[in-house]
Design a protein that fits this description.
One of its GO terms (molecular function) is JUN kinase phosphatase activity. By secondary structure, this protein is of the alpha/beta class. About 40% of the residues lie in helices and about 15% in strands. A hairpin with a 4-residue loop joins strand 1 (about 5) and strand 2.
Protein backbone atom coordinates (compact mmCIF):
# COMPACT_ATOMS: atom_id res chain seq x y z
CA UNK A 1 0.00 0.00 0.00
CA UNK A 2 1.12 3.55 -0.59
CA UNK A 3 0.19 7.10 0.29
CA UNK A 4 -0.07 9.39 -2.76
CA UNK A 5 -2.05 12.61 -3.24
CA UNK A 6 -2.35 15.29 -5.89
CA UNK A 7 -1.91 18.69 -4.22
CA UNK A 8 -1.82 20.89 -7.34
CA UNK A 9 -1.63 20.27 -11.07
CA UNK A 10 2.12 19.73 -10.80
CA UNK A 11 2.72 18.92 -7.13
CA UNK A 12 2.12 15.51 -5.54
CA UNK A 13 2.76 14.32 -2.00
CA UNK A 14 3.44 10.78 -0.85
CA UNK A 15 5.47 8.17 0.92
CA UNK A 16 8.46 6.04 -0.02
CA UNK A 17 6.25 3.26 -1.39
CA UNK A 18 4.71 5.72 -3.86
CA UNK A 19 8.16 6.98 -4.87
CA UNK A 20 9.24 3.44 -5.72
CA UNK A 21 6.10 2.50 -7.65
CA UNK A 22 7.17 3.03 -11.25
CA UNK A 23 3.71 2.29 -12.69
CA UNK A 24 2.10 4.89 -10.40
CA UNK A 25 4.73 7.52 -11.21
CA UNK A 26 4.43 6.97 -14.94
CA UNK A 27 0.61 6.99 -14.79
CA UNK A 28 0.69 10.43 -13.14
CA UNK A 29 3.47 11.66 -15.44
CA UNK A 30 5.86 12.41 -12.57
CA UNK A 31 9.13 13.85 -13.90
CA UNK A 32 10.83 15.07 -10.69
CA UNK A 33 11.14 13.43 -7.28
CA UNK A 34 12.08 15.27 -4.09
CA UNK A 35 13.09 12.86 -1.33
CA UNK A 36 12.95 14.31 2.19
CA UNK A 37 14.34 11.72 4.56
CA UNK A 38 17.36 9.91 5.84
CA UNK A 39 18.78 6.84 4.18
CA UNK A 40 16.30 6.64 1.29
CA UNK A 41 17.93 5.87 -2.03
CA UNK A 42 16.34 6.79 -5.35
CA UNK A 43 14.73 4.02 -7.36
CA UNK A 44 14.94 4.29 -11.14
CA UNK A 45 17.16 7.42 -10.94
CA UNK A 46 17.69 7.44 -14.69
CA UNK A 47 13.98 8.04 -15.34
CA UNK A 48 13.45 11.08 -13.09
CA UNK A 49 15.14 14.25 -11.95
CA UNK A 50 15.92 13.65 -8.28
CA UNK A 51 16.78 15.81 -5.32
CA UNK A 52 17.42 14.34 -1.87
CA UNK A 53 17.32 16.18 1.44
CA UNK A 54 18.88 14.09 4.20
CA UNK A 55 16.96 14.88 7.39
CA UNK A 56 15.46 12.85 10.22
CA UNK A 57 11.87 13.26 11.38
CA UNK A 58 12.84 14.79 14.72
CA UNK A 59 11.41 18.01 16.09
CA UNK A 60 14.99 19.12 16.88
CA UNK A 61 16.05 18.98 13.20
CA UNK A 62 16.21 22.21 11.20
CA UNK A 63 14.13 21.48 8.11
CA UNK A 64 13.69 25.20 7.38
CA UNK A 65 17.27 25.45 6.12
CA UNK A 66 16.08 23.42 3.11
CA UNK A 67 12.96 25.44 2.25
CA UNK A 68 14.62 27.61 -0.41
CA UNK A 69 16.35 24.77 -2.27
CA UNK A 70 13.18 22.67 -2.20
CA UNK A 71 11.09 25.60 -3.42
CA UNK A 72 13.58 26.09 -6.27
CA UNK A 73 13.42 22.40 -7.22
CA UNK A 74 9.60 22.39 -7.28
CA UNK A 75 9.54 25.65 -9.27
CA UNK A 76 12.03 24.16 -11.74
CA UNK A 77 9.74 21.17 -12.32
CA UNK A 78 6.81 23.53 -12.92
CA UNK A 79 8.82 25.73 -15.32
CA UNK A 80 9.78 22.60 -17.26
CA UNK A 81 6.09 21.63 -17.45
CA UNK A 82 6.87 18.64 -15.26
CA UNK A 83 5.27 17.12 -12.20
CA UNK A 84 7.02 16.60 -8.91
CA UNK A 85 6.45 14.08 -6.14
CA UNK A 86 7.59 15.24 -2.70
CA UNK A 87 7.93 12.23 -0.45
CA UNK A 88 9.34 11.04 2.84
CA UNK A 89 9.17 7.66 4.52
CA UNK A 90 5.48 7.70 5.51
CA UNK A 91 4.20 10.90 3.85
CA UNK A 92 3.22 12.32 7.23
CA UNK A 93 5.68 14.92 8.52
CA UNK A 94 8.74 15.82 6.42
CA UNK A 95 7.24 15.84 2.91
CA UNK A 96 4.07 17.66 4.03
CA UNK A 97 6.26 20.25 5.79
CA UNK A 98 8.14 20.96 2.55
CA UNK A 99 4.85 21.06 0.61
CA UNK A 100 3.28 23.51 3.09
CA UNK A 101 6.39 25.72 2.96
CA UNK A 102 6.21 25.72 -0.84
CA UNK A 103 2.57 26.84 -0.84
CA UNK A 104 3.36 29.56 1.71
CA UNK A 105 6.17 30.77 -0.56
CA UNK A 106 4.30 30.45 -3.84
CA UNK A 107 0.99 32.16 -3.10
CA UNK A 108 1.85 33.69 -0.44
CA UNK A 109 -0.38 32.48 2.33
CA UNK A 110 0.01 31.78 6.02
CA UNK A 111 0.79 28.52 7.77
CA UNK A 112 -2.80 27.76 8.80
CA UNK A 113 -4.25 28.19 5.32
CA UNK A 114 -1.46 26.20 3.65
CA UNK A 115 -1.68 23.44 6.28
CA UNK A 116 -5.45 23.13 5.89
CA UNK A 117 -5.15 23.06 2.10
CA UNK A 118 -2.55 20.27 2.17
CA UNK A 119 -4.42 18.34 4.89
CA UNK A 120 -7.59 18.41 2.76
CA UNK A 121 -5.66 16.92 -0.18
CA UNK A 122 -3.47 14.55 1.87
CA UNK A 123 -5.22 13.57 5.12
CA UNK A 124 -2.09 11.90 6.57
CA UNK A 125 -0.46 15.36 6.91
CA UNK A 126 0.89 15.90 10.44
CA UNK A 127 4.20 17.81 10.68
CA UNK A 128 5.96 17.18 13.97
CA UNK A 129 5.89 19.98 16.55
CA UNK A 130 9.35 21.28 15.65
CA UNK A 131 8.55 21.42 11.94
CA UNK A 132 5.24 23.20 12.64
CA UNK A 133 7.11 25.78 14.73
CA UNK A 134 9.58 26.29 11.88
CA UNK A 135 6.70 26.81 9.43
CA UNK A 136 5.25 29.47 11.76
CA UNK A 137 8.69 31.11 11.90
CA UNK A 138 8.83 30.96 8.09
CA UNK A 139 5.51 32.80 8.04
CA UNK A 140 6.97 35.46 10.35
CA UNK A 141 10.02 35.89 8.13
CA UNK A 142 7.78 36.18 5.08
CA UNK A 143 5.72 38.82 6.87
CA UNK A 144 8.88 40.89 7.36
CA UNK A 145 9.81 40.69 3.69
CA UNK A 146 6.29 41.21 2.32
CA UNK A 147 3.67 43.91 2.33
CA UNK A 148 1.10 41.27 3.32
CA UNK A 149 0.42 40.27 6.90
CA UNK A 150 0.05 36.52 6.58
CA UNK A 151 -1.15 36.12 10.15
CA UNK A 152 -4.63 37.42 9.41
CA UNK A 153 -7.29 35.65 7.43
CA UNK A 154 -7.76 38.74 5.25
CA UNK A 155 -4.24 38.45 3.85
CA UNK A 156 -4.90 34.92 2.69
CA UNK A 157 -7.95 35.46 0.53
CA UNK A 158 -6.05 34.24 -2.49
CA UNK A 159 -7.25 30.92 -3.86
CA UNK A 160 -4.34 28.54 -3.46
CA UNK A 161 -4.61 26.52 -6.67
Amino acid sequence: MYSFSKVTNYLYLGDYNAATNLVLLQHHKITHILTVGDGMTPCNPEQFQWKSINIADLSSCDISQHFDECNDFIDKANREKGRVLVHCSNGVSRAPTITIAYLMYKKPCGFTQAFEFVKAKHPDTAPNSGFSAQLRQYQTSMNKSSKHDLTTGDACNCKLF
